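Box 3.1. Reading complex inputs
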Amino acid sequence: MRIEIGLVEEVTVDLASVIKFKLEEALQPEIRYSLALEITRKDGKNILGFNVPMFEDVQDVINFSSNFSFLAGQIVFQELTIARLAPKKEDPKDQKS
Amino acid sequence: MQSIASIIMILVSLLDIIVGKYLVNQILSGVAVVAWTLVLIMSIKNYRTSTDKKILVYDFGYFDLPDHLKTSMNTIEVIMKQISTLPFVRDVFYEDRKIIVMTKHEMSSSAIMDLGFLTGTLDSQERTKQMFAKYEKDKEILNPGKN
């Protein structure tokens, strides 16, 4: 089963790849590969997609999804905060004047 | 059983003789009202239990997380307080390194995921706040009176 989470518009493509990297970093290798995390774009929005590992119990599938979304929420907020705090690149037009 | 019934009958008759039929009736209807109230309370309680849905929002022992992603107990308490204000939430509790939410109705798996995502965001938000508060405090210690 593949699940997709729509990321807020503020998450740029660059930011989305950082989020993907950090999420993978938080996972154990055996889960990381089966998850096949991927960032795609749909209707001008970045989408975080992943496979839910096969569990025997449906409740385990829901628990895993909830845990994974928790981590995604944590990392998205962290990266957005860092991006908001980073000094904005100066506009080349402003530099000329 | 018969002897118990006979004893009750004798007691009621005695009560009837001593305090009069009117009072006996009053006492019996009082007992009936109390019994019905108890039955009603029990059925409401059963109804609530049958509609409450237990959701595991996050299991802190699930992933082997790096230190920067670990959550303190203080932060967990703040998250739980914020989650408890959601309209569909009946109760939030922490049990065995897990945040568990009791909802007023059944929720779809995508709604459970959304709640997980929201909880994770709240976690990060709270930790950012704490980090800034510490930074401001450190700044004040290093440069007293400059802020």
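In summary: Residues 2-85 of chain A form one domain.
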